[in-house]
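Technical note accompanying the year-one report. For the benefit of new consortium partners, we illustrate the data format agreed upon in the data management plan: each record pairs a sequence with a structure-token string. No post-processing was applied to the example shown here.
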Amino acid sequence: MPPLSRRSFLRGAGGALLSLPWLESIAKAVPQKSPTQRLAFFYTPIGVVRRGFFPGEADAIVPAGNQNGRMKSDFVPSIAPGFHKLELTPTLSPLESVKDKVTLITGLDRKFQNGTDVHAQCASCFLSSAAPFSIESSAWPLDRSLDHIVGDHVGIDTPFRTLEFGCNSHQDNKESIYFDNISWYGTGHVAPSIRDPRKIYNRLFGTQEIDNFRDITDLVLEDARSLNRNLGYEDKQKFTEYFDSIRTIEEQMAKLDNMRGELDKAPMPEPTAAYLPRGEYIRLMGDLMVVALQTGLTRVATFMVGPERWNTPFTFEGLFDKPRSHHLMSHNQTEYVNDLLSLDRFHMDQYAYLIQKMDQIVESDGTTLLDNTLFTYGSGLGDGSTHQYNDLPIIVAGSGRGALKTGQHYHCPEATPLANLWLTQAKMMGLTLDRFADSTGLLPQLQS
């Protein structure tokens, strides 16, 4: 068998390109480097219901209506700065199986810049965290976001320095780009997320005129069979598992495309996208992100679960009998608190699914993809009803190759900027920044 590196591609007819995962049989032919670190973000819109998410706040007062307070919640538990035992609250309970590989971080704040919409700013500025009024050319404190700064450093040898995934399947653009994007090349220059699974699939695998050919896995496997004959037993299992996952992605895309086509024929009060199974769509996009990280197509990815404030309805299968608007419910938390708690749990289920999937992918030194990744869950609001910018809900899964302490709850000292976490993660990824945005220093307590 000719030497073939992990970054090699199997080329099939029709221009299809498919990257390989790490295989021991290939590694014997060509020396392999240790697994690389990855950085990924899982952004949820409109904050959370605090009493379900944060330990010690189960008895918190449920805000009545849309308060626009941007202040501390009515109930703030007395919790000392430092490490605490990780308590899995009702919203966090889907993380039980990976509890030792996640870190809950509370007490992180951002500052709101008056003069712009609270939702637009909380999403668009989440990963840039510039100080208020520090960007003279913008009404938003918006600068180059962390993913691109890290991507410039670690993505030189990857096909994509960064990849941006979005799960807003609606086409009714009622709001500006600031409500629907968290990744930015710089002030006023959005890195638009790809929201169509087929578009991101074609971008990742270089498909050309795929409708005129068979599925990518059919095309590639014709060339792959000769390679498969030279693999050991474990690699054959991994090889089969990998291509089965790609095939599953293809089948899921076809299923959603067919469903969308049928829904388009029926008269409905909401757009077709409102009726598509929400969890299936999010997990499909997540599967594509995991494949991109696994195969080295990128080392940095952002994943936005939904848009801020659009008022567009989604079905959220298993939760509601008809499409519902997350934003509208958040403005009346008293009436919809149980529905919102269910929705927070729904989003956590999707995050947990991706964590578990990454933890099942074994890399060249026996560690997992999750072990080598910093995968951050977060929202730009600490509460969806009060619109508070402080005490944000933040979780980091994975340790970035042992750089981050895991399995605990860390509560930050009063008024710790979110940018301190971003600066710390940049350092863990190998950057030597003295400061990031409005940071005041590192979070050394989190570092192993």
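Partners are asked to follow this layout when depositing records. The first strand starts at residue 9 and ends at 11.
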